[in-house]
Amino acid sequence: MDKFDQRKMDKFNQGYVNSFAIGQGYGDTFVRVPMASHNNDIRIVILGKTGTGKSATGNSILDKKEFECSPGGSISTWSCLKRETKRFEKNVVVIDTPGLQEVKKPMHAIRSEIQKSIEMAYPISGIAHPGPNVFLLCLKMGRFTAEDETLFQECLIIFGEEMLPFTIVVFTHEDTWESDMEYSGRDPKHSEYMQSLPLFALEFIGKCRSHICFNNRKTGLDMDLQVQLLFKQIEDAIVLNSGNVYTNEILQKVVSREQFKNNISYWYTNGKKMLNSVLAVGNVFLFWRNFKR
Ligand SMILES: Nc1nc2c(ncn2[C@@H]2O[C@H](COP(=O)(O)OP(=O)(O)OP(=O)(O)O)[C@@H](O)[C@H]2O)c(=O)[nH]1
Ligand SMILES: [Mg+2]
């Protein structure tokens, strides 16, 4: 590892406790992963850019094809959708959301639609505090672009930094990445993938609760085990967050803070324009007075 890589990994490790190392091996046998039992409800909001596999991940968690998935360029999820199931003795609520940074609709409309997911995450039992226990932020395993940097910023605009302890990054398309690596004659090592990520991504992911690689094409016991590992990570996040959830009150604070920031920048920009106009009029007046003399 050269100096630059070490610096990136240090930045990454500065974040919250990453309870599971990326790509932790688990062999072929079906192992029941022990889960810290805090509450029997798990409420999940799935976020990510269009086509990163949000709906597919939701279906893998639910073990049913509840959310529509679409290959290619077409967008399949336009509004938040909630589905529930009981899996591995947990009451699971999954809320699928439209793609962040979707360009075919106004940004403010997408943002407020995604924010609706918080109110939708009320508990099945009706006794716990409403709101999601975790956000699963889907990122497609592969190259990161400058667009991905704005994706992280967009997440923070919508849910604030307050979302980070509740966020688990899910690297989807693990299978495609592995076959791409094999095709180019390289060993698909997850640790090397992490090192290859740009600093902005490592910084953001390092601040999240944890991360996991995910392959939505797995089936049978392989898929069961993968989902159990994800549930274990979610359970760890719940315990580390002392059972707290991302509430609507947190969201309202974030929304008013964003509005305040927007108002300030509006008045700053317009105030500067007004001042420039006043100065311009003053200059014209002085010029006219001097001219008359
Ligand atoms: N090979 C592979 N394909 C995947 C994986 N996850 C999702 N896909 C495929 O990627 C495509 C897009 O997945 P979706 O789940 O529809 O993505 P989305 O993020 O919900 O997209 P929108 O709803 O349009 O925002 C589909 O064809 C999925 O089958 C994965 O882990 N591996
Ligand atoms: Mg979708």
TrEMBL record:
InterPro entries: G_AIG1, GIMA/IAN/Toc, P-loop_NTPase. GO terms for molecular function: GTP binding. It comes from Mytilus galloprovincialis. Residues 39-255 form the AIG1-type G domain. Keywords: GTP-binding, Nucleotide-binding. Belongs to the TRAFAC class TrmE-Era-EngA-EngB-Septin-like GTPase superfamily. AIG1/Toc34/Toc159-like paraseptin GTPase family. IAN subfamily. This is AIG1-type G domain-containing protein.
